[in-house]
Structures
1.
Amino acid sequence: MSRWQPDAQERLKRAAIELFAEQGFAATTVPEITARAGLTTRTFFRHFADKREVLFGGEEIPALAERLMAEAPPSLDPVTLIVEGLKNVADTRFEPRREEIRAQRAIIRSDEGLRERELHKRAVISDAIRTGFVRRGLPRAQAALLAELGTALLSVALDEWLDQEGDRRLSEIIPDTLTTLRATLA
Amino acid sequence: MSRWQPDAQERLKRAAIELFAEQGFAATTVPEITARAGLTTRTFFRHFADKREVLFGGEEIPALAERLMAEAPPSLDPVTLIVEGLKNVADTRFEPRREEIRAQRAIIRSDEGLRERELHKRAVISDAIRTGFVRRGLPRAQAALLAELGTALLSVALDEWLDQEGDRRLSEIIPDTLTTLRATLA
């Protein structure tokens, strides 16, 4: 086995999710994960701060949100900006990994500490969206509402996407969820 | 000093919030709180599990939400149910305690663990609202959206209420926040 595994991170992640699903998150150790992946614990800690980070890796979504919002034309209406941004994230980050995300969700739901970490992650994304809208010149309360809207749409649409019997894309479910919200508020 | 203080809980809370504000949450101990309140630590632990619970005491809001939703007429439209429920909570629980709630918010914002506890509390309220709407016969995605709407409205309106220069009631700001959301989505 070559020392430099270009796919080490992916293999560690897959091994970890398998083990968490088989024997529980709390009961799984880093050496067990690295043994299953055929890699060293040293390699593990090059990629992840701890076993929890395997499930939450990448703080890149807030940074992505910030960039998309800074680059969007100033005239673009805020709801379109949110929906297009979420569709972009859905197609690039979520759609190719549905089974893995479903397994991750089950593990997160099984552990109180993981659920708190997920809520924290969601709050960080919400803050990034709110700051982005304030920078685009929106009043504070409206920016806060739009940030809540963005994270709420993603969260509700994500559950629909993972729980569906069919095979609809997340990027189709997101605008449908907005339509449901509009109809509910009408 | 009488052994049975009918206002012991209130005095402990006031003493704790003063000390958290003066010297920080982490640096404040339970004996310091009870010394300032002129009560024993034993009394403290009769009212609160730990010093964090002084800031989050009372899991009564999810229970209140559950009761209001079960008792509301089946024909009541869901958005009206949410807004009337929030106005009820605003007038009975929040309006009489604005300064205290403002001080609590500042302390919570100063400590990562307290912020996580607050996010958890919000998630519990959201779950109660979602379950209430599912019991009222709404489809799952709509119930989840309404739960997100309820907690989002309360959170954004609460910040407006605490940060305002003027003296508007929270129960007036809540429907105005909904109007802003409707206009944003239109």
2.
Amino acid sequence: MKEEFRVTPWEVSGKIDYSKLIKQFGVSKLDKELLKRIEKHAGELHLFLRRKVFFAHRDLNWLLDEYEKGNKFFLYTGRAPSGAVHLGHLFPWILCKWLQDKFGAEMWFQFPDEEKFLFKKNLSFEDVEKSLNENMLDVIALGFDPKKTHFLVDTKHANLMYKEACKVAKKITFSTVKASFGLNDSSNIGSIFYTSMQAVPAFLPSVLKKKKIPCLIPLGVDQDPHFRIARDVIPKLGYDKPALIHNVFLPPLSGMGGKMSSSESNVAILTTDSPKEVRRKINKYAFSGGRATIEEHRKKGGNPDVDVSFQYLRMFFEPDDKKLQKIYEDYKSGELLTSELKDILIKKINNFLAKHQKKRKLAKKQISKFLYKD
Amino acid sequence: MKEEFRVTPWEVSGKIDYSKLIKQFGVSKLDKELLKRIEKHAGELHLFLRRKVFFAHRDLNWLLDEYEKGNKFFLYTGRAPSGAVHLGHLFPWILCKWLQDKFGAEMWFQFPDEEKFLFKKNLSFEDVEKSLNENMLDVIALGFDPKKTHFLVDTKHANLMYKEACKVAKKITFSTVKASFGLNDSSNIGSIFYTSMQAVPAFLPSVLKKKKIPCLIPLGVDQDPHFRIARDVIPKLGYDKPALIHNVFLPPLSGMGGKMSSSESNVAILTTDSPKEVRRKINKYAFSGGRATIEEHRKKGGNPDVDVSFQYLRMFFEPDDKKLQKIYEDYKSGELLTSELKDILIKKINNFLAKHQKKRKLAKKQISKFLYKD
């Protein structure tokens, strides 16, 4: 039987059926009850939670039990530096920022600068270094509290991380990574070892503070295999399994399948795109649920469920549920044309990016405040 | 066909035929011509060179060519901390000290504190840490110049080493380490990665000084597989292959097969053994080439070629060739009894250890001088 879609840390393709993925990965659905528990503590629910951008989890109930007992969690997420940041990358980061604000959580942000180096044939550490600095600016621009936020760069924090990674590595066989990541005998031995480094920040704060601190990892669902292994190993080292909360992928402009990717920059909105560039990309490439002619559209209406512009508004840019509902209905009835819908989105994105890019510039002087110091 | 002997970084067993090993490993014999080249520069030949304790090499002629062009080499050897140091461990270290003196060479000494942790099931990092400090004392006690000698501890110098190890790792497939080290799918992913870390000190000084510096690695021949791989990879990173010079194993007291091991402490002389302990071990366990009775020994003579005490004198403790020759002949003729031969050795070892242990005590305050600082 042909796979209809494929989700691994290194490949996302096909039209993803997230209900199937929940079963395939053995994660739990992020249900109403759990959302209510979050809302109770946060006072509200972030758009990403309300709109099911975050759709699955592992052990989130346990994490909230601990929180209710007064045992605060820390957040861990990351970014393997390579190329530009696009809007899809921001899902877990923005949720982290919201969780930091609402739960007073410390944030550990990993930049595994060896990951892409090890997995991409022609990438050098010099290439990675350039992306690293640029990528850090995007994280800082989201407004994290520098006093509560710590950046870890694998090769620069190796004194802190390599020993812990060895402890993880000792508990993982090649068979396990082979099965989880599709590696084989021709894989390089750095790529085989790598998942051990990705596991470390999930318990490093517990090592440093010499007590068990619960960990919550917001992450793209494609990263789940790393933490399936990490969750097996970490209790063997005397720490608690990290809880996970998974987001869906922001689709590329070209349509509702797969995952936005910076390497296909025509169908990705980068955080550094100019207003003109955003307009060009959306007008030219954003897959439309509209009809072939204006007349037909007015008569039969469009399909917002496959319309990428509408989906971006739903998943990211229109927080007002009532306004979104109206756009949905107007598009479906044919009252709202594709060009008008795109225009709404373009303005929203450009508004978001104008602020982001301003904060991104200011971030250049702040990097050292965020880098973890022993 | 049954293997008669086995030499890998993790197992040495059987009566080793070093001529066969030269062919098996594809190393070159350390011949007279080469020894003369060394002697020309050093003014003399160390006992370990004269007596073929160091018996094989890779690219030593190239190293001397470079030296003659004014391109000085540095030395690299190491010790995976675990348990006590025995006399056999000292072969490469003592040669390094001699080479440092004679060639003015910088010395990089690696303590890969993760190696035994990764390869030994029940060993913890706490266990390793204890051995690490003890082992460092033995190295310092040999008299290295602290200004020209740098200790690298893998987990403590990971900021310096991990990135370089990733560069090495990217060029090595699992197939390669499988074949070289007998690893398999059940091996842990730390043990699979490890050889990358062992390769790093062979080119790290070149990285730091931003120019190619030739490297010479004195090492037990069982470590050759690590550097067979490293020598393939290092030129791909833009540096020269390190030259190697290999020593035979000091046999255990029990006889001329295998390799002395600290875990079988009755048949190993540890650097911390008391004079009484040395006497007990040698009198009780040192395999003798003598006859069953004194009468028979006087009549037929002993066999120094299989007598461990004689071999220790030859390989380590009697630098005077004439004296050694006389002992050989006297033992063979039966004039020298086994008890007398053992007595000669016991005095020599205890004399050596008395000095070593004194310097070992003084070394406690010197460790920080030897640890490499960025």
